[in-house]
Amino acid sequence: MKGRGKKSLKEIDAFLKGAKRLIGRRGGKGGFIMTLVAIAIMITAVIMNSSSPGLDTDSSFLEVEVSKVIDGDTIEFLSEKNETIKVRLIGVNTPERGRPYYKQAADYTKKNLLGKIIYLELDIAPKDKYQRTLAYVWLSPPSKSDKPTDGEIRTKMFNAQILLDGYADIMTIPPNVKYQDYFLKYVREAREGSRGLWK
Question: Is the pTM of this model over 0.85?
Fold first, then answer.
């Protein structure tokens, strides 16, 4: 698992060395502007690094092993630094403790995810107000990360599967709406098929 921070810091270091050489040659106003640009890049990298600790946003997906299932729509994994990262599935909502089908939804997620290697895909907002990482959970990455097919979403994405099997309802919270249209279709199929919650 490669962290974006490591790569970004190497890139910044290389950029700074180049900027120092440029400043040494040109000095004056050009060197000053280059220094400002380098500082801006460093600040951006620090912000990106701290926004989602333990997440590798260098690629479209982060490969992790699920260490715990909290309930039907919340799981945990351990980062490289051995920090517990809580993940809330985007676009779905399972019954809360004490509600009908709570246990079935939690058991469904445990059966399919606990101890498994998964691939997390982030959307626009990386965290919710409880500081949980918001993600789409893939059992295996799609062939085209920028535009997966309906078939791949159905068979490879857990968020879609829990909707299709009727153990979750849709919950759309902008700006994380990348797969909203698919999810609406899947929950409609589950209702029409009287699956899970919709029996």
Answer: no
